[in-house]
């Protein structure tokens, strides 16, 4: 495959650009292009690299007369029209695990934040209050963490939170119970998981089977005060149902790094 010129449409690590240049590939970095401008630009390139911001739609793919490859700096490819790319024999590549440690560390930070009410405590202090007892929070030791998606990120989260004394349970349709046991996760069906969890963190792609996976029915089934974390994809947790659960106390807190609708 002859790749001479690549458009980087979303901000990526400098090492990615350097690697391309070291292989004599011309690289242009043009971020946050409006769709119409991207349609006009893509005609000049053999390849495009995106993260999650840029949506590589059928219109963009159709306009890419030279396009041979679409690279996704990350795991999920839900922002790329796979069918349109396949029809034009355009290769779609992703980098699963490329940001696994970063996503894992953010997940762990959000879990600790929720346990210790870091954000509301800080906001209270900014208002000149000293509500120490109100924001005491609780220990993570002995609590049950449910991990939905036991790939590399889910596995890394499990290993780290076990060191905090959390019991880890999880579900993944691909990872077997035997494999999950090698990193001390009890593999269960989702219906078994919901009533047991004190915290739920999701690490799955956004596909039809996972859209609104965490919904009203789940919040009704979980312990009152369940806390949820999502650094994977907006849409895995139903935002409407989450808001209702936060308002009535069924959910005790949410740590979100992704949303169904995000700024361009």
Automatic annotation (TrEMBL):
Record-linked Gene3D superfamilies? NAD(P)-binding Rossmann-like Domain
Q: What is this protein called?
A: D-isomer specific 2-hydroxyacid dehydrogenase NAD-binding domain-containing protein
Q: Which InterPro entries match?
A: D-isomer_DH_CS1, D-isomer_DH_NAD-bd, NAD(P)-bd_dom_sf
Species per Swiss-Prot/TrEMBL record: Oryctes borbonicus
Tree of life domain: Eukaryota
UniProt lists the family membership as follows: Belongs to the D-isomer specific 2-hydroxyacid dehydrogenase family.
Q: Which UniProt keywords apply?
A: NAD, Oxidoreductase
Q: Does the keyword Endoplasmic reticulum apply?
A: no
Domain D-isomer specific 2-hydroxyacid dehydrogenase NAD-binding: start-end pairs: 109-264
| GO terms for MF | NAD binding; phosphoglycerate dehydrogenase activity
């Amino acid at each position: 495959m002859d790749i001479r010129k690549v458009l980087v449409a979303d901000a990526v690590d400098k090492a990615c650009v350097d690697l391309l240049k070291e292989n004599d590939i011309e690289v242009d970095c043009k971020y946050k292009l409006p769709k119409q401008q991207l349609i006009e630009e893509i005609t000049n390139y053999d390849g495009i690299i995106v993260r999650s911001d840029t949506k590589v739609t059928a219109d963009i793919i159709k306009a890419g007369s030279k396009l041979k490859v679409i690279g996704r700096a990350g795991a999920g490819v839900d922002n790329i029209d796979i069918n349109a790319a396949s029809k034009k024999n355009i290769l779609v590549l992703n980098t699963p695990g490329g940001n696994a440690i970063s996503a894992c560390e953010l997940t762990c930070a959000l879990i600790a934040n929720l346990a210790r009410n870091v954000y509301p405590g800080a906001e209270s202090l900014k208002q000149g209050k000293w509500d120490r007892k109100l924001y005491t929070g609780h220990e993570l030791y002995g609590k049950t963490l449910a991990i939905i998606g036991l790939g590399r990120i889910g596995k890394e989260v499990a290993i780290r939170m076990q060191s905090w004394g959390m019991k880890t349970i999880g579900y993944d349709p691909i990872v077997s119970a035997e494999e999950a046991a090698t990193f001390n996760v009890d593999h269960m069906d989702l219906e078994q998981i919901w009533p047991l969890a004190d915290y739920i963190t999701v690490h799955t792609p956004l596909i039809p089977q996972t859209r609104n996976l965490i919904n009203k029915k789940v919040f009704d089934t979980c312990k009152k005060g369940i806390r949820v974390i999502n650094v994977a994809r907006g849409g895995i947790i139903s935002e409407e149902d989450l808001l209702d659960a936060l308002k009535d106390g069924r959910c005790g807190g949410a740590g979100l790094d992704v949303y169904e609708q995000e700024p361009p």
